[in-house]
Amino acid sequence: MASTADFRNGLCIHFKGDLYTITQFQHVKPGKGPAFVRTKLKNVKTGKTIDNTFNSGVKIDIARIERRPHQFLYKDDMGYNLMHTETYEQIALPEELFNAPDLLKEGDNVEAVFHADTETPLYVELPAHVTMEITYTEPGIRGDTSSTSSLKAATVETGATIMVPLFINTGDKIKIDTRTHAYVERVKA
């Protein structure tokens, strides 16, 4: 058991029968009344974020989670097959546990997060940015920036569709943010 004094960003706790990660917290000591802690909690399974206020000193249950390095091998009817990079143990995980499965290439390194007590996989995180090659996009017409967005659709090597600036062409390599599926920059060869 821990208390609100142990709060820190990234701490995983048992709350309302589910696992939540603390994404933000603030200790508040008003002039009148008892101190409290304002938090933003992210549900580990659904990804939904909620606001909650804890009275200062309240006891909480901390959940032990472990981040383990894995490499994506291939996808089949069992799911996404990963290999632990240190023990070479292989596991198959369902698509719902991945934050951006459409941006995953064979050989990519990911972090699988497990509940340490029950050894159940919670979710799999890709790196914040991945580099992909554009396999198809319409050519941009010079001077065609009259539209407000100046973006066009492009298909990358995994089959995902990303909105990119008009100057990006087929064969270019781009960096993509895996959390938002947004174009970041063109990668020089």
From TrEMBL:
The keyword Protein biosynthesis applies. It is found in: Cytoplasm. GO terms for cellular component: cytosol. Pathway: Protein biosynthesis; polypeptide chain elongation. Residues 130-186 form the Elongation factor P C-terminal domain. GO terms for molecular function: translation elongation factor activity. Residues 67-122 form the Translation elongation factor P/YeiP central domain. Keywords: Cytoplasm, Elongation factor, Protein biosynthesis. SUPFAM superfamilies: Nucleic acid-binding proteins, Translation proteins SH3-like domain. One of its GO terms (biological process) is peptide biosynthetic process. The keyword Ion transport does not apply. It comes from the Bacteria. Involved in peptide bond synthesis. Stimulates efficient translation and peptide-bond synthesis on native or reconstituted 70S ribosomes in vitro. Probably functions indirectly by altering the affinity of the ribosome for aminoacyl-tRNA, thus increasing their reactivity as acceptors for peptidyl transferase. Belongs to the elongation factor P family. NCBIfam families: efp, PRK00529.1. This is Elongation factor P. The lineage of its organism: Bacteria, Pseudomonadati, Bacteroidota, Bacteroidia, Marinilabiliales.
